[in-house]
Amino acid sequence: MYGAERGTRDGVPEEDREVAEVPERGRVSGGGRAGRRPLRVVEVTGPSMVPTLYHGDLLLVQYGVPVRPGDVVILRHPFQQDLLVVKRATERRPGGWWVRGDNTFAGGDSTDYGVVPAELVLARVRARYRPLTKGQRSVTAVVGWALSALRPVRSASSRLRAR
């Protein structure tokens, strides 16, 4: 789910783009006040969360915060724990969370691997930033991008249920 690009892009260093490991509990990110949860920037790769998230979107994620049904979350894949994925937590079930991708045709969610243990759910997505692409050079394209580039990732309807 996270980019394979190296170096920097859009002024964001590579180490701030990828989530390689879970920060230590209680660690303060960015020298802020004690009690704040660590925030990281990660990049989306793949189509599993379209139309909410697209390939190349940057996400601001927060570790160690409670998850509610409808939240978009970062989790370790239950069968490949070195692989991090982004999904929507749809329902709390015995043994963990039922997670779904917003793109029903992409697969790779709880319909394939079942309930995800709560300890594998690492972070909640707070906001999405969509970088300007090379093809967006006209005034209308840039204005359209400016209106939609930075958005909070809202929870889905409270009526959202796992199928």
Uncertain runs: 1-34, 157-163
* Assembly category: single chain
| Estimated helix fraction | 10-25%
Overall outline = globular
Q: What structural class is derived from the secondary structure elements? A: mainly beta
- Strand tally is 9
**SSE topology string:** EEHEEEEEHEHE
Largest sheet: 7 strands, antiparallel
Kindly provide the radius of gyration, computed on alpha-carbon positions and rounded to a whole number of angstroms. Answer: 16 Å
What's the gist of this structure?
Helix content is 11%, strand content 29%. The protein is mainly beta and 163 residues long.
SSE order and pairing:
Blueprint: E1 8-9, E2 12-13, H1 14-17, E3 39-43, E4 58-63, E5 72-76, E6 84-93, E7 96-100, H2 110-113, E8 121-129, H3 139-148, E9 150-152
Antiparallel strand pairs: 1-2, 3-4, 4-8, 5-6, 5-8, 6-7, 8-9
Please name the defining characteristics of this protein:
7-stranded antiparallel beta sheet; mainly beta; single chain; 11% helix; 29% strand; globular; 163 residues
Task: Describe the structure in your own words.
The protein has helices spanning 14-17, 110-113, 139-148; strands spanning 8-9, 12-13, 39-43, 58-63, 72-76, 84-93, 96-100, 121-129, 150-152. Residues 1-34 and 157-163 have low confidence and may be disordered. β5 and β6 (84-93) form a beta hairpin. The protein has 163 residues and is mainly beta.
